[in-house]
Amino acid sequence: MATVDIVSSANQKTGSVDLDAEIFEAVVKPHLFHAEVRRQLALRHTGTHSTKNRAMVSGGGAKPYRQKGTGRARQGTTRAPQFAGGGVVFGPVPRSYDHKLTKKARRAALRGALSLRLKEESLTVIDGIELDEYKTKKVVEVLSALELAGQSVLIVIGDEHEKLERSARNIKGVGVIRAGGLNVYDLLRHKQLVLTKDALDQLEARLGAASASAGAEA
Q1: Which of 79, 115, 164, 173 is positioned for an S-S bond with 26, CB 3.0–4.6 A?
Q2: Phi-psi bin for 139: left (phi > 0), alpha (psi -120 to 50), beta?
Q3: What per-residue confidence (pLDDT) applies to 13?
Q4: DSSP letters along 145-189, please?
Q5: Of 1, 40, 6, 7, the residue nearest 23 (C-alpha)
Q6: Neighbour-count burial of 27, counting CB atoms closer than 10 A to its CB (0-12 exposed, 13-18 middle, 19+ buried)
Q7: Dist. CA 169–CA 106, nearest whole Å
Q8: Nearest CA to 128 among 41, 214, 10, 42?
Q9: Which residues contact 120 (CB under 8 A, 6 or more apart)?
Q10: Band of pLDDT at residue 102, cut at 50, 70 and 90
């Protein structure tokens, strides 16, 4: 079981915490990362693209000209694909891009991503980030104190913190997400991970062995 320091927003040690080995020392499986990220990005496809085929285009009920004697190829309708305004051949139609991945595989991918950040020594546990106003500069100061300024950082918080979430919005490479929405895609696209203490508690409740067994029984 790994033990990491808990630091303040000024990067002063305030304690330590034992990380759940079930979550932070899991086997890293890149193929699960690929499958989960692919699933997440597929969900972003609205699938509303649409074209009209020959049967859906209006008009073209009569032959454009007689069958023989014109010297041109015979035509049955001006709504055939070769005419302007005609139907589209094998064009895109509304569809769903969703594909399923089992809950067990998704949880394993998330555990693996968290374990990867710990293995890379890219995980910081902080007791909290307090902001009394909407101030991007304050967030930059906290990141500078943590020696993370200018880096790609994902800050995971426990509950809604509108001032922090909006203040960090304009900082390039920095994202803020609540523990309940933490996912593999956001974890992998940020090089550094900052967990608040309450976010860590929520993740352990969500991904720990007790939670998994409870879900299996349900």
Answers
A1: 115
A2: alpha
A3: 93
A4: HTT-TTS-EEEEESS--HHHHHHTTTSTTEEEEEGGG--HHHHHH
A5: 1
A6: exposed
A7: 27
A8: 10
A9: none
A10: very high
Host domain of residue 159: 3-45+101-217
What are the tokens at 26?
Answer: 């899991």
Phi and psi based region of residue 169 (left: phi greater than 0; alpha: psi -120 to 50; beta: remaining): alpha
Q: Which amino acid is at 178?
A: R
Is there a single domain that holds both residue 92 and residue 105? no
User: Two tokens at 156?
Assistant: 């995971």
Task: In whole angstroms, give the CA distance from residue 215 to residue 7.
Answer: 33
Q: What is residue 39's predicted lDDT score, i.e. its pLDDT?
A: 96
- 171-186 pLDDT tens trace: 999 999 999 999 999 9
Q: Does 60 lie in the same domain as 14?
A: no
Segments of the chain assigned E as strands = 3-7, 13-18, 123-126, 153-157, 174-178, 192-196
**Rama region for 128: left / alpha / beta (φ>0; ψ in -120 to 50; rest):** left
Q: How many domains does the chain have?
A: 2
pTM here? 0.81
CA neighbor of 154 nearest in space, from 125, 203, 188, 192:
192
